[in-house]
Amino acid sequence: MDTVIYEVGAAAAYGLVGLALMALGYLVVDLLTPGRLHSLIWTDRNRGSVVVLSSSVLAVAVVVRQAILASEDGLAAGLVSTGLYGLVGLALMALSFLVLDALTPGRLGELVTDERLHPAVWVTAAVHLSVGFVVAAAIS
């Protein structure tokens, strides 16, 4: 029974780290896009913002999953390494957004939040997911 309680506690702890990283991912996307992300998605129903935020959250989840699978040094070290890998993934996703913005015409944040679903949304989402997969692969 002690093993089950420990494993449930570990799952909850990893879940909290994952939730914290996904919340931080939300804040990063909110900072990179003009306007309030909450209003863009829940009030304005802006599809571009939904796609970009969703891709960011999924990419973070991919990184967190791989970090959990790769952690072998005990719960505390595993939680720390998972958090650090997640932060690296978020930083690289933010950097990829800024690089994509610099390499393409227009302001990426404005294109992503445009009322019409701009093709740049799909490119941004693909880049976020790709960064998540690359970081996850680097962990293993």
Task: Describe, in plain words, how this protein is organized in 3D.
It is a single chain. The chain is an all-alpha fold and 140 residues long. The protein has six helices and no strands. Helix 1 runs antiparallel to helix 3, helix 1 runs parallel beside helix 4 (75-103) and helix 4 (75-103) runs antiparallel to helix 6 (119-139).
Give descriptors for this structure.
140 residues; mainly alpha; 6 helices; elongated
Q: Low-confidence stretches at least 5 residues in length (pLDDT < 50)?
A: none
Strand element count: 0
Q: Structural class from helices and strands? A: mainly alpha
Q: Gap between N and C termini, in Å?
A: 31 Å
Largest sheet: none
Q: How big a fraction of the residues is strand? A: under 5%
> What gyration radius follows from the Cα positions, in whole Å?
17 Å
The share of residues in helices is: over 70%
Topology of this structure?
Elements lengths: L1 H31 L4 H7 L3 H24 L4 H29 L4 H5 L6 H21 L1
In short:
This protein is mostly helical and 140 residues long. It has helices at 2-32, 37-43, 47-70, 75-103, 108-112, 119-139.
